[in-house]
Amino acid sequence: IWFYCALMSAPPLLGWSRYIAEGFLTSCSWDYLTRTPANRAYYIYLLTLGFVAPVCIILTLVLLFLTSWTPYSVVSLIGQFGDIQRVTPWTATLPAIFAKASVIYNPIVYGLSHPHFRSSVRQYLSAHKTIANWERK
């Protein structure tokens, strides 16, 4: 997280945009009022890394949460207020497994969004594919 914060806040210290007092002069922020090509490029950089990327990750995680827990919630709702005959062992077990396995989804999403992790997985899978092909011969 410290590296990410440095990526976001260091550019004005290095000459890409600058920090100025804002509003009632009680805090500082990057100079978003000066319309230069450099400031606009820095704004796009901040918008992408500081807003769009986190929002995409958050929306993905919320969607996974809803996908994981909605079937389980529906089955339990039917169990409490609906026709109990509709709750079979399969309709009770599958949503429960899927919902309770949701603890593994966050690390997968964060892992897949990290470029080093993706390249390591690709390297690992290609090595095992090579070994599997060699063993078949």
TrEMBL record:
Hydrolase among keywords: no
Domain of life: Eukaryota
Residues covered by the G-protein coupled receptors family 1 profile domain: 57-110
Subcellular location: Membrane
Signal sequence residues: none
Ranges that cross the membrane: 42-66
GO BP, sorted A to Z: visual perception
Keyword Transmembrane helix: yes
GO molecular function, one term: G protein-coupled receptor activity
Family statement: Belongs to the G-protein coupled receptor 1 family.
Alphabetic keyword roster: G-protein coupled receptor, Membrane, Receptor, Sensory transduction, Transducer, Transmembrane, Transmembrane helix, Vision
GO CC entries: membrane
SUPFAM superfamilies to which the protein is assigned, alphabetical: Family A G protein-coupled receptor-like
Protein name in the entry: Arthropsin
Topology within the bilayer: Multi-pass membrane protein
